[in-house]
Amino acid sequence: MKTKKRIIALMLSATALFTSVFSVSIPAQAATKSKTINGIEYYYVVQNNEVIIKDTYVESNNSKTITIPSKISGKSVVAVERFSCWGQKPKTLVFPNSVKRLGKTKKAGFYGSIMYSDTNDFTAFGWIGDGAKSLETVKLGKGLITMEYNPFPFVKNIVIDKGNKNFKVKNGVLYTKDLKELVAYPSKKTAKSFTVPKTVKTIRRNAFVLSKVKTVNLNKVKELKPDAFYCSSVSKVKIGAALQTFTGEAFTNCKSLKTISIPKNSKRYSLKNGVLFNKKKTRLILYPATKTAKTYTVPKTVTTIGKNAFNNAKITKANLPSKLKKIDNGAFSRAALTEIKVPSKVTTIGARAYEDTRINKLSLPKSVTSLGYESFRYNWDLTSVDLSKTSLKAIKKRTFDGTSVKSVKLPNKLETIGEEAFIGTPLKKITIPSSVKTIKSYAFFNYTMTNLTIKGKSTALSESVIYVPHKYNDEFDEYGYEVTITAPKGSKAQTYAKKNNIKFVALS
Questions:
Q1: What is the rounded distance in angstroms from the CA atom of residue 182 to the CA atom of residue 503?
Q2: Which residues contact 236 (CB under 8 A, 6 or more apart)?
Q3: How many Å apart are CA 215 and CA 470, to the nearest integer?
Q4: What angle do CA 248, 252, 255 make, to 5 degrees?
Q5: Which 8-state DSSP code applies to residue 22?
Q6: How far is CA 197 from CA 7, 203, 224, 255, 259, in A?
Q7: Residue of 167, 191, 310, 354 with fewest CB within 10 Å of its CB?
């Protein structure tokens, strides 16, 4: 039964995400077109009379070398955002000189990879499959100008036209032309150690994604971008005196990370029992994922748990200090936590702060004023949520998506319940306080809801807030119940119920 509910929860999430997210991934003003060339279907948009390839589908091209066309329908191809290899096994991918940009831009808000396929090895950068895994070499043209992150997490060799004025390959690693930024370290390089050249000041996002390198000397690097070592096999990192900008996000999903070393008399960092802090120990930066302790007591001086600080940690309990004020984005994501106690001075819990942990109940203090999106997503064991004491005004997108929440208490100052906030949960009933102004799409979209009580007369409900069984087939009768909305007579909720043919009961 539990497995079935999890599957259904994921199906609901996927349905809602496809509708609400995928539909806006391509700008509305740019119509998507498609054209098949040499067995590859290209999905593209035309902007300023130039072609931007959004994605591809390899239908029947079994070539070992795939060359992206320099023109489609007579217009120059200037950007490639993704290239999918569904079941194919290319070894070489060649980009024409016309391509100026690879991957998506920061403005687009998504850092995905060029290559992905359709098997079940999923990462934040796309699907890793046979087509992608077979790739050995990418050849880049002389026209390439922009590549904000490493979009090639599956290659062994990177080759670039000698005439390119923006990038350079040295010992198989891709840098900016001036050797000040490390852009891409091929994941299939077999070296066990790597010392970053002294000229390099920045390591870009995804630069070492999936790399097999075990030991890295950062040398004179000043800045590590988020996800710089995403899913890499790195186990030892030597931080140089120059490093200034750095959070635990740089080592997201680095499950082999064991040792961090810093310079003697470092002015910026300190270590205690292998855990990295800022110099004054007010911010906990990184707790290595290989540490085996089940309980960890954070030092009393700490006021902030940094981004992704405990990502994938094996601890089941963290004793947090009374001075703690902020639990940043991803702080305990994928940790083995089974219980949490948030101190009374914490005001902010960041996005994905406790995503995919093992906690079973949640009660937050009055001091909490902000919960980031997806902050408790994928906590399958979480059944009870009490937010009634908090000062929250908003529950953001997908905060409790993928949980087993059956009981929820909301704060009386709450104003907004975000998209998919409780999507796929086994909630049967919930009472919305009169302070709530808006309930956004798919907020309570599940197969178990029987009663939605809304105390406010002016509370607005967006489209598809709840699942309405009679609108669909009886395929999920085991979980589908008739829904009742209980609200004041003449309320916006009554109008919503009438419009969607939902049973309405006037609130007495």
A1: 60
A2: 214, 215, 216, 258, 259, 260, 261
A3: 59
A4: 110
A5: G
A6: 48, 11, 14, 25, 21
A7: 191
Helical segments of 88-247, H only: 130-133
CA 203 to chain centroid, in Å, comes to 20
CB 248 within 8 Å of CB 308 = yes
Each residue's pLDDT, cut to its tens digit, for the chain (508 residues) gives 444 444 444 444 544 443 443 333 333 456 899 999 988 889 999 999 999 998 888 766 678 888 999 999 999 999 998 887 766 778 888 999 999 998 876 544 334 444 433 332 333 332 222 355 778 899 999 999 988 888 887 889 999 999 999 999 999 999 999 999 999 999 999 999 999 999 999 999 999 999 999 999 999 999 999 999 999 999 999 999 999 988 999 999 999 999 999 999 899 999 999 999 999 999 999 999 999 999 999 999 999 999 999 999 999 999 999 999 999 999 999 999 999 999 999 999 999 999 999 999 999 999 999 999 999 999 999 999 999 999 999 999 999 999 999 999 999 999 999 999 999 999 999 999 999 999 999 999 988 899 999 999 999 999 999 987 655 544 544 444 588 999 999 999 999 999 988 999 999 8
- Tell me the C-alpha to C-alpha distance, in Å, between residue 111 and each of 149, 205, 392, 499: 7, 9, 30, 39
442 Rama class: left (phi>0) / alpha (psi -120 to 50) / beta: left
**Per-residue tokens: 42:** 């290209």
**Burial of 203 per CB tally in 10 Å (0-12, 13-18, 19+):** buried
Give SS3 for 419: coil
Tokens of 244: 């200034």
Give me the amino acid identity at 140. L
Q: Which helix (H) or strand (E) holds 252?
A: none
For the chain, how are helix, strand and coil distributed in percent, rounded to 5? 10, 30, 60
Structure tokens at 86: 């569904």
| Residue environment code for 204-231, b if the CB has 16+ CB neighbours within 10 A, otherwise e | bbbbbbbbbbbebebbebbbbbbbbbbb
Rounded distance between C-alpha atoms, residue 235 and residue 288, angstroms: 9
pTM, full prediction: 0.86
Run of H or E residues at 19: helix 2-20
Residue 66 near residue 91 (C-beta atoms within 8 A): no
Mapping DSSP to helix (H, G, I), strand (E, B) and coil, where does residue 392 land? coil
Task: Return the closest-CA partner of residue 214 out of 157, 257, 243, 151.
Answer: 257
| Beta-bridge partners for 261 | 238
Helix, coil or strand: residue 94: strand
Say how far apart CA 32 and CA 72 lie, in whole Å: 13
